[in-house]
Amino acid sequence: MQRYKLTIAYRGTNYHGWQAQAMTENFKGPAPAEGQGIPTIQETLSRAIESVVRHPIALVGSSRTDAGVHAKGQLAHFDTDQTQIPIEGLRRAINAALPADITVRELAPVENSFDAITSTISKRYQYAIWNKPDRPTFFPDLVWHRWQELDFAAMRDGANRLVGEHDFASFARPGHGRENTVRNVLACDVARRGPLLVIGVEGTGFLWNMVRIIAGTLVEVGLGRYQPADIDAMLAAKDRQAAGQTAPPHGLYLHWIKTAPAAWRAG
User: Fold this and answer.
1) CA-wise closest residue to 222 among 199, 194, 240
2) CATH 3.30.70.580 domain locations along the chain
3) Which whole number is the average pLDDT over 32-47?
4) DSSP category for residue 191
5) Which residues are catalytic?
6) Are 80 and 1 in contact (CB under 8 A)?
């Protein structure tokens, strides 16, 4: 058996997140085929891979992105004994079996000690905001439209205050189920190119909806509802009600994931 690492890009608009999910009574979309769950990235990609290697696989993803969230560099792994298939031929065959909104960007053999979850050491997310009076007609599902003028300098100041090791309880959705809410944010930046404003957050781990709450809070800083220094008080409060709104999922992207070198995993 050979383990393969995949780097995957997807447009999450038509999917209920990464994680495979069974049909539920609350699901309002078309009923899935017998034996299939509701549309998710994991299940769609698993079926495509299985159609190529001709056996069941266990596809493990690094990040369980929510419904409507996109990815530029999700990581996953699976095992197969079909090692006679050339790497690039395998990647192309899988992509041919996938819908157009999911693409395997890279496929590489790795040692069996590699695990898409436990080998991850940091991740970077991006949140895209279209800051212009007119809505983004051709890509409304890929950015959050905010027509009001945003104070870019204030948002950058607020973002800088989130860098470092802090208790991010105020920036986590209630019910996150984590006993420890301390997280290490390695970078938090705001960049602008014309009407497109992008918030980037890199960290060693994140709480449920943490990046979306950071983005929503920084937008409120940009609107003048909070001052940048208020971020310090939000962190100290350790109370979700102290921070700003939760930005909608469709502006969020999993940008990239860094993994530990093989020597570290072996140790």
Assistant:
1) 199
2) 2-110
3) 91
4) E
5) 66
6) yes
